[in-house]
Write a structure and sequence with these properties.
It contains two helices and 13 strands; from the N terminus they run E-E-E-E-H-E-E-E-E-E-H-E-E-E-E. By secondary structure, it is mostly beta strands. The chain has two domains: 94 residues, Sandwich (Immunoglobulin-like); 44 residues, no CATH class. The strands form four sheets. The chain has a four-stranded antiparallel beta sheet, with no helix packed on it. Strands 10-11-12-13 form a four-stranded antiparallel beta sheet, with no helix packed on it. Strands 1-7-6 form a three-stranded antiparallel beta sheet, with no helix packed on it. Strand 11 and strand 12 form a beta hairpin. The mean pLDDT is 88.
């Protein structure tokens, strides 16, 4: 895994953290390594935060959790106002990450890296920068007028 998939632009010298959510709004609970409804079991923002590192020059970085299943997630970044993360901390920015389970799936990776099609099944494997890790597999299906993509 490359790491630093979470990148946030914000004034240096602050305390910035991220929270990861599913499309349904559930939030990642790092200690339990699972998604849950906000506030389950009395959990607060302090239970959901992923601290980010100030890399200098207004950039904060952090790693996506290794044990998170592949999917499309919303990442929210907050500026910590007090000693601990709190629900009234200001939102710095938000974005989406398509997580493959081993790295972020980006258009650049699909276009610039190796893709191999299995001639017998038609399935196409798209590889990560290392040339060995499959990021995405899909099988196009030819129709008379269209080509469909199946995951």
């Amino acid at each position: 895994m490359m790491g630093n998939e979470i990148q946030v632009n914000h004034a240096s010298g602050q305390a910035v953290y991220a929270v990861i959510r599913t499309r349904a709004g559930q939030v990642w609970h790092p200690a339990a390594a699972q998604f849950e409804d906000w506030g389950a079991d009395g959990h607060t923002m302090d239970d959901y935060d992923l601290p980010l590192t100030d890399a200098g020059g207004g950039l904060y970085v952090g790693d996506f959790p290794d044990d998170m299943a592949p999917g499309r997630y919303t990442v929210q970044a907050f500026g910590r106002a007090g000693a601990n993360p709190a629900s009234d901390d200001p939102l710095v920015c938000a974005g989406r990450i398509v997580w493959t389970g081993t790295g972020e799936l980006t258009a650049e990776k699909l276009l610039a890296n190796r893709a191999v099609q299995d001639k017998s099944t038609g399935a196409i494997d798209y590889y990560d920068d290392d040339g060995a890790t499959v990021l995405l597999t899909h099988a196009p299906v030819d129709g008379e007028l269209t080509i469909e993509r199946l995951r």
